[in-house]
Records
---
Amino acid sequence: MGVKSDIEIAQEAKLLPIKEVAAKVGIAEEELELYGKYKAKLSDEVEERLNKQPDGRLILVTAINPTPAGEGKTTISIGLTEGLNKIGVKAIAALREPSLGPCFGIKGGAAGGGYAQVVPMEDLNLHFTGDFHAITSANNLLAAMLDNHLNHGNALRIDTKRVVWKRCLDMNDRALRNIVIGMGAKTDGIVREDHFIITVASEIMAILCLADNMSDLKKRLGRIIAAYNMDGEPVTADDLKATGSMAVLLKDAIKPNMIQTLENTPVLVHGGPFANIAHGCNSVRATKLALKMADYAITEAGFGADLGAEKFLDIKCRMAGLKPDAVVIVATVKALKYNGGVAKADLGKPDMEALKRGIVNLDKHIENMHKFGVPVVVTLNSFITDTEEENEFIRMHCEELGCEFALSQVWAKGGEGGIELAKKVIATVENKKSNFAPIYKNETGLKEKIEIIAREIYGADGVTFDAAAKKSLEQIESMGYGNVPVCMAKTQYSLSDNPLLLGRPKGFTINVREAQINAGAGFVVALTGKIMTMPGLPKVPAAEAIDYNEEEQKIVGLF
């Protein structure tokens, strides 16, 4: 019999009712808002009750620059959580919700893999508890109210050439990137250029993930800049009187979700911004709750450490007052060989020379995390195509750098395969003090912040700014937003802004073509290279293989 697919493993799982899972971390049934048998939202009362509990240890799981297939941060996060529980340490994971875009596009599902998964995986990968639909609706309500305001006389004197709020959809649909709306009769609205972004790039996704509570959420929503008027002044969601209605649509979405692992351990899954075009971290509320519920809270940040981890440390931790105790960097033999120049189709073949060329990518990520003052553990996510020689080379390389190393076999063995990593994480936390500090100060200028990230984290020689980006950054600072952090939008495949420059490129510059203020979220987005905020589907999308088997009444082909 061949290797079982993730969905086959998930469908064979013995799930416990979510109220029994929640009881393991002291959550009573009346504190849950049930979404069927196996999903629940945590009521506000949980947060209030746990508020005075001491915090556990915070462990961030990040990775090297990935292959286009992704390298298993979620799998490792779940396996590490299970490994800790296996050795008697109370641990809980706080993860992001998957987007439908990659699910039907190129990467497949995002519920972990093999025997280190969260379940029900089909629900999580599809509509889950409706959070993304709520975010999409709130985003598009603001867009609709703006266009309605234009149609009914434009009392705010909005400049239709300077509408910056985009509609969104949780799907890869390149045809919607640049569109014209208001065509038809006079009653069909004002004709203007418009754009769509994917829901996970929406500022409302970032706001939901960074908001402390409903009051904070409403303040952030009200600050959203939707357009500029004829005098160049910002027009906000408050100005358009959209804040209250948007908040109503998000009243349930702001509550963290709880599901379970294959081994029936509770997991919080909440929020899902991409890290290549947004800040790439789950919600602050879920992370803080996890810290109150367990001795160890395991969380992840999207894509490589140059994107997700940098934003976790410079944006999320700064805003939420979080201090990570250690960082786990996930590497795979495949990704290291990919960074050594091996084509995706040949990554399963042994190639020590490519591995030696590509390991410099890991070196840079280790250096970067040390720059933030946080201890590092490297883990190798094991694949059946890996050889003993390849594994030993990576282990010795990490040890020479003074870095803890663990082989993770969580895909094949679940929590049992995560015990080695769990022990290394505990040893690191107990023996090495975290002296965490962000890489730049709030008062540093916006251009300088971008230059610090480019030089220190990417290894660039410098940054070039297009005229439009320069002008935007100057305007943002003149509006009083010079002290906010920067969220870099960049390709995930390279440390540079060119996806073809693999390994540890040198002698390159980063080009910032555009900058915009997300006043509600509280950061500036700097777009580099050719990064798109609305991805497209590949030539053969994953959607072609997904189906519903009516005889067996189950979903097939979902990763």
---
Amino acid sequence: MPNRLKNEKSPYLLQHGDNPVDWYPWCDEAFEKAKREDKPVFLSIGYSTCHWCHVMAHESFEDEEIAKLLNRDFVCIKVDREERPDIDAVYMAVCQAVTGSGGWPLTIIMTPEQKPFFAGTYFPKQHRYGQPGLRDILKRVTDLWKNERNELRITGAEITAAVSERKLSGRKELEKEILKKAYDQFKRQFDERWGGFGSAPKFPTPHNLLFLMEYSRMENVPEAGRMAEGTLDAMARGGIHDHIGGGFSRYSTDEKWLIPHFEKMLYDNALLILAYLKAYQITGKEEYGRIVCSTADYILRELTDAQGGFYCGQDADSDGVEGKYYGLTREEVMSVLGKEDGKEFCRLYGITQRGNFEGKSIPNRIGQAGRDWQADDVRLKKLYDYRMKRTKLHKDKKCLLSWNAWTILALARAGWILSEDRYFHGALKAKEFIEEHMKDEKGRLYLRFCDGEAAHEGQLEDYGVYALAMLELYHITFQAEYLKEAIWLARQMTELFEDEKGGYYMTSKDAGKLILRPKEAYDGAIPSGNSVAAMVLQELAALTGEVRWQEAAWRQFGFLANEIDEYPAGYSFALLAVTKAFSKRKELICAVNGKQPMELTEYLKEKPRDGLYVLVKTAENAEILSECAPFTENYPIPERGAVYYLCENGACRAPVTDFESLGI
């Protein structure tokens, strides 16, 4: 019999809709039932492209014996961590506090009042290799609930109190030395041979690389740039990079970036586009530009909804087998490409008779001589078509606003820098999708859209990253409407999420209550909402000159200074915002009669926008621009041509009409 999840939209919840477990989504009804029937709550959190979530589902949640125990003695709740990152953040903090680690699937058992007394991740059905089995855990908890319930409630209260304690943020002064401290930590962890940081598993974490490239420029430390570029090169050669279809998998299971955990996530690929773009602008290496294009094309081809939104990602498994979609044998390659081209592909991409992954080979360029095939090579298209016909990858077809916003930012910047209109148009179409489907009548954002339904109140990341995307569109087009939209989103962000004691909460002030209101600053696989907020506020302070944004940025940097002091390398996107605060800053106002000058356009396209903030004033946008940045009202539009006003570090130069004479 189907359970209540069959009525949900989340692909992850729908995957469990036919389980014999009587699942509820997170809702008041489930907790009311637990109170009424005097039962503990079994909470399972995961996501649709998670390999070990699938394993636990097949072993336990599809098992009649386990389902009988769960249905008889517990009220069971399933949560998609991507739809409800707030719930996931709360109970992941619990798991890390109790066990010292975390991950997915996340398994929590708690009281009807949402207070957890047991936490873990994946459990097999039965005891195995020293790991407790879920069946034994459920029986033990049931016995304790009947006979020692008060002890469980005390444990739940103590755990809740422990994770609810917050250190006071104070107003610690932000100091530039924090940047060097982060660099030194990255340097100690850098893998000189294979790139990346630490040992296996290795994650791309593109914002770490963006910080290192920016630090290298700002402080003239070539070694920081070398570490970033070395990692980008190693990932591009490895099997984590899909050399046939484009895009990158979530992480590498080995130190060489050879064998990935095969799921592909939208956010990884969007952020990697930004990292490879930055490297392209710094070095001029065409290879970086090609990787940007193949990754962007992958997103547009395989993760884009017909209405313009972007899907979450693709699964690691095909037909229940991890990596089946990606592995190739020599015989398969020969049959698709013929003997001559087949032998060349096998030589260039490490396809061997023995294989490198469960008898097959994951294409890679590690240690391979010779030039690789270009992404538009018809021979790669043949292999791509063969893979698609051989087996399919499950897609998580929900659209998350913050992930879509990262992709809008990445595609817009890629289209601009590489002069590829299809990427910029893809970004604009996604922006229109959000405006039409993921906003309510009051302008509040929804977190998720799936199967025709928008749901869940937008959280800090949604407002912050979407504001950052609007700022990117403004920097590219200088259409003042985008700046106005970014300001509107930032106002909502501060009004709904800011904590008067410092920082920003993940959930809005009028959101449903959990056992605590999470506030995250650490930059994990995705930059945290607090790091993004710092970047948005810093950008608005520089562009608008408004005291409101300058003070908000100062407050946020004070909060972050306290958070990141001990391990700054874990806050790399926050540090990107910090680099802007300490960089030499230039503000350029271009007042122009007619179109934006071509020399300004070409300069901005070719150069990284390092410490330069540009406003373009025309007769058409003057009114909106003065609303966004009131100081621009005093800059007259010339009768013909353009006039440039350059200010640097608080001092303004005389206006000029010749762009070259600015010397920027």
